[in-house]
Amino acid sequence: MSTSAEIGVFGGSGFYSLLENAVEIKVDTPYGPPSDVITIGTYEGKNVAFLPRHGRQHQWPPHTIPYRANVWAMKSLGVTRIIGPSAVGSLQPHIKPGDFVVCDQFVDRTSGRKDTFYDGPTAVHISSADPYCPELRKLANTIIKEQGISGHERGTNVVIQGPRFSTKAESRWFTSMGWEVISMTQYPEAILALEQELCYVNIALVTDYDTGLVAEEGVEPVSAAEVMEVFHANNERVRDVILEMIKRMSPVRDCKCATALEHARL
User: Is 210 an active-site residue?
Assistant: First the structure.
């Protein structure tokens, strides 16, 4: 079995069990070890690398995930496209638990995370105007619609530091700004992929209404256990979308992700 891959997947518990001829490998990086061993296997004739971003035992809280090591490891294996599913909370009433959101923007509310590969001496200013790959977003939205899943073609993902959930005041603020969902892992994962000129797409599964919304109805705030319960209940649908995306991915990249560094260096 080859130890190279063209497509990478972060997260998606149980996904790697569907890969053929799967092998586990350890990858060393200049940024330390990634979250866990990487599983490489084949699906529909394509080599796929799988890495659980939190580790298989969920041992990495969101603010401690080795994001740089994870992305660098994927790039070192030959990966050019990454699918990054994640669990999110809804900030808007019309975005319901069980819905999928293919995010097109994020708002970074994290602090202190290692969020660039370029600490000098070369100055690199990557454009994050459109942080998610338009080609992969279009493909994901097409498949979500075909599979009859309630989905939203775009949305802004507010990325908080974690590991705590938001206060009611914070959540109400995010809602008032018109942002759609909230999570803890999209930054800097998405932007680090772009710094490596990789295509990246986030498929966000809504597991709950965030605390600012439920406060208006007098509902108890969500717990981590409830989030995981909804996520696991919908895990098969997420997996089906990812597998169909892998099946349909063209070998040619026509997006700007592949040349993201072209005008980023001074």
Answer: yes
- Over 70: is that where the pLDDT of 227 sits? no
Q: Where are the domains of the chain?
A: 7-259
Task: Catalytic residue, from 36, 99, 108, 210: name it.
Answer: 210
Question: Of 36, 104, 208, 240, which residue is the catalytic one?
Answer: 208
| Residue 130 annotated in active site | no
Tally the residues of the chain: 266
Answering whether pTM is above 0.70, one says yes
Q: Which of these CATH numbers, 3.90.226.10, 3.40.50.1580, 3.30.750.24, 3.40.440.10, describes 7-259?
A: 3.40.50.1580
Across the range 96-125, mean pLDDT stands at 95
How far apart, in whole angstroms, are the C-alpha atoms of residue 258 and residue 1? 27
CA distance 250 to 240: 18
